[in-house]
Every structure is written in C-alpha cells, then in structure tokens.
Amino acid sequence: MLSDVAISAVSLGLSSLLGSGIGFFFKNIPHKLNDIFLGFCAGMMLGAAVVCLILEGLGIAGAGGWWQVLIGVACGVALISGIDFITPHLHHITGLGEQERHSDANRSVDRILLFVLAIAIHKFPEGIATGITFDGHNVDNAWAVTITIALQNIPEGLVVVTPLLLIGVKRLRALWVALAIAGIELLGVFAGYLLGGISSALLPGLLGFAGGAMLYVLSDEMIPETHAHGFQKYATYALVGGLMTLLLISEISF
After folding, report:
1. What are the domain boundaries of the chain?
2. What is the largest CA-CA distance in the chain?
3. How far is Cα 90 from Cα 227, in angstroms, rounded to an integer?
4. Taking Cα atoms as reference points, which of 122, 137, 105, 134 lies closest to residue 216?
5. ∠ CA 126-194-12 to the nearest 5 degrees?
C-alpha cells in the first residue's frame, strides 16, 4: 500500500510540475489573453475551493461537524487578509529589484504573490485528503481522487508560474517556487496516509481553511485583476469555462 501512496504522491507532484513546465512557454502575452487565461484559472480555483475543499470538508465532518469547516474557512480568510498587509515585505521571494517592484508594469506583484500563496496553502490539505483515501479499503476510490487532483494540478501549475514570469521573475526562481509547491502536496499525501486518524480528525478544518484562503484571493485579487484592463466580459466567460471544466473533471474522475 505504501508503494501506491508513493506513486500517488509523485504523480500529483509531477502533474503540478507539468502545468508549471507549460507555463514557461508563456511570458510576453497581450493583456486580453492574459485576462482570459487568469479568468479560466480563477474558475478552476473557484470550483476547487467550493467542491474539492469546502464541500468535501463538510462531507467528511458530517452533519454535526459543519462548524469545523466554518471555522476553517474563517481562519483561511483571516490569514490571507492579514498577509495582504505584509506582501510588500515578501517581494524578496520574487527576486525583483526595488525599481522593478514599483514600476508601472509590476503593480500586480502583491496580488500575484497572494494567489500563488493561496495555491501553496491548499496543497497540503489537498495532499492529506488524497493520502487518507489510501488508508481505507476502497483503493479504486483513492486512485479516482488522485486522478482528479492530478488533472486539476495542471492548470494550477500554470497559474503559479505564468503570472510570476509576467511580472519579471527569473525562470530559475519561478522553477524553485513550482518545485516547493509540488513538494508541499507530496508531503501532504504521506502525512495523510501515515497519520491516519489524526489527519481525518483535522481534515475538515484544514480543507475549510484552504477553501477560505482561495475564496478570499479570488474575490479580492484575482477576479479584479482580470477585470482591470477592459476585457472583463472575456474574463467572465473564461471563468465560467474554467468552473465547468473543473466540475466535469471531478464528475468524470469519480
């Protein structure tokens, strides 16, 4: 069984890196295409936050445990809201110089750091959720979860790397960020499997926490960014397309 868990963990990590690898082909793209792309990813993230995180947490918690997910969502929103105030102090992560950070072309650095951070935050509980499924008797269900998350990881990998490149982050530094985020999920899979019951008890709150963090970033940063350059209708259509894609992936995989 541990070998199955290892294969699942590596598959999730590689799928995330696959998306990031595709992202390296996009650097200088027009605002219209950028807003469409980010709108599609926002739709995917919206579906993931609600269906794969919050609703999944509610399902695991049961009728009497809804409060765990609610508290988790509130904590996720509060954390990212607080981090919003300190993102200017996190610019060293990007490797951009002082002049680059404050140029007109890079006013989006703060919001990009926030939604990259939100993706990173949700990787650990997502990995735990996958690892826990291998702790039961239905291995087919465990592989279905792995496939669903692996497919979802590809556009998420894209949305990690491409915005970083667009604000001028060097490719090698963006690669390290992508590797770190993939590694977080890989660790989560092993933690979910090895910790078993402890992970199960904490999972509803952790899923709610990740979902709340993603919802905050989507509403406060990501969607406004796609509506800031006059292409909001295209971005809205793309968001709906991204949401439906995530829902279809989830339905087909399960």
Report:
1. 2-24+31-253
2. 56
3. 25
4. 122
5. 35
CA R_g for the chain? 18
Whether 47 contacts 248, CB under 8 Å: no
Contact (CB, 8 A) for 31 and 232: no
CA distance 35 to 225: 8
Going by C-alpha positions, the residue among 250, 237, 202 that lies closest to residue 71 is: 202
Question: How far apart are alpha carbons 73 and 25 in whole angstroms?
Answer: 35
pTM for the complete prediction?
A: 0.74
Amino acid present at 241: G
Write the pLDDT tens digit of every residue in 4-41.
Answer: 889 889 999 999 999 888 888 876 667 788 788 888 88
The total of other beta-carbon atoms located within 10 Å of residue 228's CB is: 15
